[in-house]
Amino acid sequence: MSMISKKMCLVGDFGVGKTSLIRRFVDRQFSDQYLSTVGVKISRKNIELIGAKEQEKLDLQLLIWDLEGHTKFKAIAPSYLQGASGAVIVADVSRQETIERIPEHLQLFTSVNPKSSIIIALNKSDLIDEEKLAKLFELVEDLSHEQILSIHTTSAKIGKDVDEIFQKLAYKMVEPV
Ligand code: GDP
Ligand code: MG
């Protein structure tokens, strides 16, 4: 069985839940504590991808890059994004300004990686009602960019759609271009 490695980046404003989504997916945990260290943290997660035919299995080592402790005024270094096969752009549905900044993150990531896929996670969906969530979703749908694979409402807190976004992006990242 073959084993390959791919880099995925989490991108988004400070406090939107990037680290929490990774912790939920990799460690199956969530914490309300605001833990922030400075630097880049790379989490590894091995996942098994199953092809159209059952016997086409692929072991993928996902290297999930997380930028920690940066403020919204500090630009993301292109070196952080370089070589990424995919990105999750995260926004916080309880803070509209983090949604308004999605296009900036999108622009930066796609300029460094013009062929990589992106999933948008509208996180903290546990904090607002369905109706408001639907409106925000529509707003983000209008962005329509060829590199955006899909948009999801997620919650790292209750575990909603967390595995789904990572898995879906992972499948796309190993597709031949
Ligand atoms: P980061 O700066 O993007 O890495 O954000 P963190 O993962 O550190 O999360 C910032 C804060 O939001 C923390 O206090 C988390 O506990 C909280 N948080 C993260 N995800 C969720 C979520 O889905 N729902 C709720 N209610 N809080 C969340
Ligand atoms: Mg963080």
Q: Regions with pLDDT < 50 over 5+ consecutive residues?
A: none
Which hetero compounds are present in the coordinates?
guanosine-5'-diphosphate, magnesium ion
Q: In the CATH hierarchy, what is the architecture at level 2?
A: 3-Layer(aba) Sandwich
Shape: globular
Please name the CATH topology. Rossmann fold
State the distance separating the first and last CA atoms: 21 Å
Number of separate structural domains:
1
Kindly state the percentage of residues in helix.
25-40%
CATH class category: Alpha Beta
SSE arrangement, N to C: EHEEHEHHEHEH
Structure commentary:
This protein is an alpha/beta fold. The protein has one domain (3-173): 3-Layer(aba) Sandwich (Rossmann fold), CATH 3.40.50.300. 31% of the residues lie in helices and 31% in strands. It contains six helices and six strands. The chain has helices at 18-27, 78-81, 96-100, 102-112, 130-141, 162-173, and strands at 3-12, 39-50, 57-68, 86-92, 117-123, 148-153. The chain is globular. The two termini are 21 Å apart. The relative contact order is 0.21. The model has no long low-confidence stretch (mean pLDDT 91). Bound molecules: guanosine-5'-diphosphate (GDP) and magnesium ion.
In short:
The protein is an alpha/beta fold. It is 31% helix and 31% strand.
Strand and helix layout:
Blueprint: E1 3-12, H1 18-27, E2 39-50, E3 57-68, H2 78-81, E4 86-92, H3 96-100, H4 102-112, E5 117-123, H5 130-141, E6 148-153, H6 162-173
Bound molecules: guanosine-5'-diphosphate (GDP) and magnesium ion.
